[in-house]
Amino acid sequence: MFLVRGVVVLAILFAVALAGRLYRSWRAGVRDDRPAHPLVPASLLAGAARTWVVFTSPYCATCGPVEDRLRASDPDARVVKVDATREPHLAAAFSIRSAPTVLLADGAGNVTARLVGAEAVDSYVAARYP
Amino acid sequence: MAAPTPIDPRGPRFNQGVLATALLAGFLADWRPVVPAFALVLLAGAAFGPKYGPFLALYARVIRPRLAPPRELEDPRPPRFSSAMGVAFLGAGTLAFAVGAPGLGWALALMVAALAALSATTGICVGCEIYLALARRRPVTS
User: What are the DSSP calls for B72-120, one per residue?
Assistant: First the structure.
């Protein structure tokens, strides 16, 4: 019986490790090529050639620093903050699952990059705006 | 309503690590009292706040002072909701043991152990994600 229980425990630990690995690879950072995004609304773009849309939540401790980082690194771009809990339809339209999630949109509203998490933003910005 | 004071996210992760280890060890040894005992441990933290959870308090008083400051803080409500879900599952498991269904009792406890291990080792907190999904759906009053 102890052996059976040991196998069950090992199976659980293996499943946990596998789930963690799959989840991390699924969420891993930069996704430049997701085709399914709708256009970013013109009200957010406000005519800018390039707009960073930062999806935040009231629970997000890293969203403020991310926003500051974007403003400092890309001063020519517009940076707008969207509280996903106050704009649930917008969050749902862009499949926002966690904060911060950052979208980079061109002047026509096409999403050209999607960054999930502060680390992804840091690495993306460091690579393109050194 | 003002957001509560953010917490060090490593505290709940430590708590979840202890929980997962204890439940898995209890299952290995077929020691059923571990299930109601940890239901009470989670209940204390979820109902009254982190300083009343024994392992959260242990982390705050003994372990955290020996570590570097956290890189980020988190809202305490999602992990408290997650703990409340754990209380519900472990409470149901305790009930299952009491009515003579140990298989169901251990199944519920092992679900909690698996999710706690996942959270402790990877930071993926399923209960927190459920809380956030619910928070996105409810009307904003503030």
Answer: --B-SHHHHHHHHHHHHHHHHHHHHHHTT-HHHHHHHHHHHHHHHHHHH
Q: Which residue has the tokens 């890293």?
A: A62
ipTM of model: 0.76
Q: What are the tens digits of pLDDT across the range B29-64?
A: 999 999 999 999 999 998 988 888 999 999 999 998
Domain CATH for A98? 3.40.30.10
Interface test with A, best of B5, B118, B126 (most A CBs within 10 A): B118
Q: What is the pLDDT of residues A1-54, one digit of tens each?
A: 788 889 999 999 999 888 888 877 776 655 544 446 788 988 899 888 999 999
Asked if residue B91 is part of any domain, the answer here is yes
What is the least distance, in Å, from the CA of B108 to any CA of chain A?
13
**Is there a contact between A16 and B24 if contact means CB atoms under 8 Å apart?**
no
Domain of residue A93 covers 31-128
Whether residues A106 and A66 share a domain: the answer is yes
Domains held by chain B: number? 1
Give the other-Cβ count within 10 Å of B99's Cβ.
Answer: 10
A-chain residues near B136 (CB < 8 A): 84-85, 88, 91-92
Residue B22 belongs to domain spanning: 10-137
